[in-house]
Amino acid sequence: MTNHPEILAWVEEITALCTPDAVHWCDGSDAEYAALTSLLVARGTFIPLNPEKRPGCFLARSAPSDVARVEDRTFICTKRRNEAGPTNNWMPPAEMKARLRAKFAGSMQGRTLYVVPFCMGPLDSPLALVGVEITDSPYVVVSMRTMAHMGARVWNKLGTTGRWLPCLHSVGHPLPPGTPDVSWPCNEDKYIVHFPQDPAVWSFGSGYGGNALLGKKCVALRLASWIAREEAWLAEHMLILGIHDPDGNSTYVAAAFPSACGKTNLAMLVPPESYRKAGWRTTLVGDDIAWLRPDSEGRLRAINPETGFFGVAPGTSPSSNANAIAAIARNTIFTNVALTDDGDVWWEGLTDSPPAHLTDWQGKDWSPDCGRPAAHANSRFTAPAEQCPSIDPAWQNPEGVPISAIIFGGRRPGTMPLVYQSFNWAHGVYIGSTMGSETTAAATGAIGQVRRDPMAMLPFCGYDVGEYFSHWLEMRRHIRHLPRIFHVNWFRKGPDGKFLWPGFSDNMRVLEWIIRRCRGTVAGHETIIGWTPHWEDFNHEGLEGFTRDDFNKVMAVIPAEWRAEVLSQGELFLKIYDSLPKELVYQRELLSARLSLD
Ligand code: OXD
Ligand code: MN
Questions:
Q1: Which of 5, 39, 61, 80 has its CA 20 to 30 A from that of 267?
Q2: Mutation probe of ligand 1 site: the residue of 264, 288, 381 with most atoms within 8 A of C-beta
Q3: For residue 261, is pLDDT > 50?
Q4: Is residue 87 situated within a structural domain?
């Protein structure tokens, strides 16, 4: 419990509004976790998994209508519409609060209100931010304990005057007397609302992931990006990876990718055998979010504000991500995956061939020929980061780790070479601002359409995206040792539709070139789009059958493709024109000029 007067007053106010049956102040203890998981089992929300196969693990099945983040129900409520910008949903704060107060009124009837103190970032870090989440979902409480520092230690850190962010959450499913509960309560009407000028989060109607675990996307990205602009740092949708060479040099990189581009796999990369034999290692600091701040010497340092993974299960396997498989062996909450007959979990891609019988994510009988996926495509594991075998010993360092390179990437079947380096910081910001992933014919019916996702922050930027680009450009003045900026693309395809690059472990080869560029130990080849590697400098030892010709194909810069690329970027720039920094317009002009001379 706390003596912080503002928090006591807020909990009293919300209790009066939401009318729960009881209030529970969370202490984050093992006993509390055990009691809440037992309660979730008793209610049918959790199925305990076989303790011999998955000790300390549970399976939850959500309502079919509550399976993912709801971007169309996510709002940034600033005083003026232009502060939220053209890429965010907006409503005036007073109007939204009035609407939500009516929703929250009585919403916790028949339930317990949990007060969850959490700290994003190491408890003793100057970069850490404290929040207090009020929720009526015990599933959220136990998940928050994995995803953030949670409990009594956070009250101690706050004292009676510390800064904190109020985060209000209800599944929006009150239980009038005599009403039976359901195993996954939620409400059809969902609101994920941010008031960055308070700052506060109000989330109603969903119990799933980023909608409900408010420390993650809501605080650590949307509110934090607003705070970061005011305080001259960056809150980014980036993994943080350490690369350690055989000579004992350690280099850290931060990398932003839109969803479904293998971010968790890269964060947990296992180097190819030839590298491991030579003494190379990689370590993980974070798999989803990075807070980057210049230190007193002007070096950019990064912390991972989270303490757990909320990773997508399908596609995760011993060959695609052995470290993730080890991390989820115990103490993990699985949501919407399939259940095996012997009490273990399964999802598409976990094994080469599926088991003969499963219970699918909705609790129905499943067999390989039934025509339905067994696990939901967005099914997840929630696991403690410290269980990952490649966790970096410095991952909880309060000062963070020094960042030498920033990497942007997307899923681009064409145009984008395997890797290129920007000419300078402003050019790198332009590359990040225009990044995107190409849609597939299956999803949209249109091949080759690029969905722009600037810095992978489109759904997560808590203010006007043009102002966000200006902030990135201005950060150059605060950083003396500027990280080098790169763009990578693991997904380029040849005319036969086959990938030109093997990806996964072999991405280490690209990372080696990147860190050697940062150290100034390798030359680059100047092209119209930036610096690219020479074949002679690209480590292809042990990469059977990958020839110089293959390298040229995956690295090719094809002017006709780039002309189409520059034209297609115009659509994004037009949409955000009002606040688009002129430097980015000029960068696009410069690229056009280089293209016309080619
Ligand atoms: C995401 C996630 O949606 O990390 O980006 O869950
Ligand atoms: Mn993410």
A1: 61
A2: 288
A3: yes
A4: yes
Confidence at residue 440, expressed as pLDDT on a 0 to 100 scale: 57
Phi-psi region of 37 (alpha: psi -120 to 50; beta: other; left: phi over 0): alpha
Mean local confidence (pLDDT), 112-137: 97
Measured in angstroms, how far is the CA atom of residue 499 from the centroid of ligand 1?
25
Residue 397 has pLDDT above 90, yes or no: yes
Give the CA-trace dihedral at 9, 11, 15, 20, to 10 degrees: -160
In this prediction, residue 445 carries a pLDDT of 46
Whether residues 190 and 111 share a domain: the answer is yes
> Alpha-carbon distance 476 to 485, whole Å?
12
Which amino acid residue places its CA nearest to atom 1 of ligand 1? 259
Residue 443 falls within a domain, yes or no? yes
- Protein residue with least CA distance to atom 5, ligand 1: 259
Using CA atoms, how far apart are residues 303 and 295, in angstroms rounded to an integer?
A: 12
Residue 216 phi/psi, 5° resolution?
-75, -95
Asked whether the predicted pLDDT for residue 441 surpasses 60, the reply is no
Assess whether 38 and 104 both reside in one domain: yes
Cβ(288) to ligand 1 under 6 A?
Answer: yes
Structure confidence at residue 598 (pLDDT): 66
* Whether the Cβ atoms of residue 172 and residue 189 lie closer than 8 Å to each other: yes
Separation between Cα atoms, residue 305 and residue 285, nearest integer Å: 10
Both 91 and 224 in one domain: the answer is: yes
pLDDT of residue 417: 98
Q: Are residues 343 and 323 in the same domain?
A: yes
CB count within 10 Å of CB 80 equals 10
Final residue in a domain of this structure, among 231, 250, 267: 231
Distance 369 CA to ligand 2 centre (A): 32
Q: CB 516: neighbour CB atoms within 10 A?
A: 18
With bands split at pLDDT 50, 70 and 90, how would you rate the model's confidence at 371? very high
C-alpha Rg value of the chain to the nearest Å: 24
Same domain, 370 and 503: no
Please check whether residues 540 and 562 belong to one and the same domain: yes
Number of the ligand closest to the Cα of 209: 1
Q: Are 201 and 219 in contact (CB under 8 A)?
A: yes
Residue with tokens 């009526």: 136
Task: Answer yes or no: are the C-beta atoms of 422 and 183 closer than 8 Å.
Answer: no
Residue numbers annotated as active site: 261
446: pLDDT strictly greater than 60? no
Whole-angstrom distance, CA of residue 82 vs CA of residue 69: 24
Distance 235 CA to ligand 2 centre (A): 12
Note the pTM of the prediction, 2 decimals.
Answer: 0.97
Q: Are residues 345 and 447 in the same domain?
A: no
Task: Give the residue numbers spanning the domain of 363.
Answer: 308-387
